[in-house]
């Protein structure tokens, strides 16, 4: 059986991103999302989640960009290379920051079912160790295993190279996350920023047997997103259109793909 979780990153980033995620869930195939505890629109996202209890909520742990939740006076590293340097210098209390972010989400009454990281920073061993620790502490059963199941010929060469390189972390993931759950397959990394109806349909056509997480970044391109520091702007509207397109639903029905979420998987 082919089962699919369609999971949106960046819930809580801006209110227009939040609105797009909820729309993709209510009118499209999106089944889950992960919430940024340090997002500018965190409170708005929490309010929307209360209005729509069928949207499965997880944690989008943020170790780059924005402010620390543990110490709001401190900015997080701006880029992944900055984070790596900070980790080498032991300048970031990684577990304590991760715990503070999860605790902020749990304090709203949300019981997160899954956890992933902004920019896939749990590819870095100190972050992966912290993710494993807080997942067990807070009873979060599922952790993203961010290794695309295939190589997308339409992706840029560098993107494909990174996707291949990421797979070298798979044994470390398996050891560190032993006892926690991961999906059988993952996809979405190589199409980030260029996901449209055609590339979505092509991915759905080649989904393998088992449970796959499809990562996406839908949103509405409103004033807050336009002003935000992110490269994903116009692409979020395109992804939203793809996720809600009737032809997307038809591919699922024709292939017999079963939509699910982390709470039900």
- Using the alpha-carbon principal axes, give the shape: globular
CATH topology: TIM Barrel
Counted beta strands: 8
- Structural class computed from helices and strand pairing: alpha/beta
Largest sheet: 8 strands, parallel
Tell me the strand percentage band.
Answer: 5-15%
> How would you spell out the order of helices and strands?
EHEHEHHEHEHHEHEHHHE
Number of helices: 11
Percentage of residues assigned to helices: 40-55%
Domain module tally:
1
CATH architecture: Alpha-Beta Barrel
CATH class: Alpha Beta
Kindly report how far apart the N and C termini lie. 13 Å
Rg, rounded, reads: 17 Å
Unreliable stretches, pLDDT < 50, 5 or more residues? none
CATH superfamily: Glycoside hydrolase/deacetylase
Report the mean per-residue pLDDT as an integer. Answer: 93
Fill in the keyword field for this structure:
265 residues; TIM Barrel; 8-stranded parallel β-sheet
Secondary-structure topology with pairs:
Elements: E1 2-11, H1 15-27, E2 32-35, H2 42-51, E3 56-61, H3 80-88, H4 94-106, E4 114-117, H5 125-138, E5 142-143, H6 157-166, H7 170-176, E6 185-187, H8 197-205, E7 210-216, H9 223-227, H10 234-244, H11 246-255, E8 258-259
Parallel strand pairs: 1-2, 1-7, 1-8, 2-3, 3-4, 4-5, 6-7
Helix pairs in contact: 1-2, 1-10, 4-5, 8-11
């Amino acid at each position: 059986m082919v089962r699919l979780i369609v999971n949106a990153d960046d819930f809580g980033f801006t209110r227009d991103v939040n609105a797009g995620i909820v729309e993709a869930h209510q009118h499209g195939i999106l089944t889950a999302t992960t919430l940024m505890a340090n997002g500018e629109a965190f409170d708005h996202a929490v309010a929307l989640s209360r209005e729509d209890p069928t949207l499965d909520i997880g944690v989008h742990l943020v170790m780059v960009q924005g402010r620390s939740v543990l110490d709001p006076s401190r900015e997080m590293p701006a880029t992944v290379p900055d984070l790596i340097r900070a980790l080498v210098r032991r300048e970031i209390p990684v577990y304590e920051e991760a715990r503070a972010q999860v605790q902020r989400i749990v304090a709203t009454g949300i019981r997160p079912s899954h956890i992933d990281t902004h920019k896939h920073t749990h590819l870095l061993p100190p972050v992966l160790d912290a993710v494993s620790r807080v997942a067990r502490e807070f009873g979060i059963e599922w952790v993203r295993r961010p290794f695309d199941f295939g190589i997308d010929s339409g992706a840029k060469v560098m993107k494909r190279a990174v996707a291949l390189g990421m797979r070298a972390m798979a044994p470390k993931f398996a050891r560190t996350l032993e006892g926690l759950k991961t999906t059988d397959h993952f996809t979405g990394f190589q199409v980030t920023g260029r996901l449209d109806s055609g590339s979505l349909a092509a991915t759905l056509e080649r989904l393998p047997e088992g449970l796959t997480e499809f990562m996406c970044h839908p949103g509405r391109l409103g004033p807050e997103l336009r002003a935000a520091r992110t490269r994903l702007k116009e692409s979020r509207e395109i992804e939203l259109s793809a996720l809600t397109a009737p032809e997307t639903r038809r591919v699922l029905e024709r292939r017999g793909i079963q939509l699910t979420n982390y709470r039900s998987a």
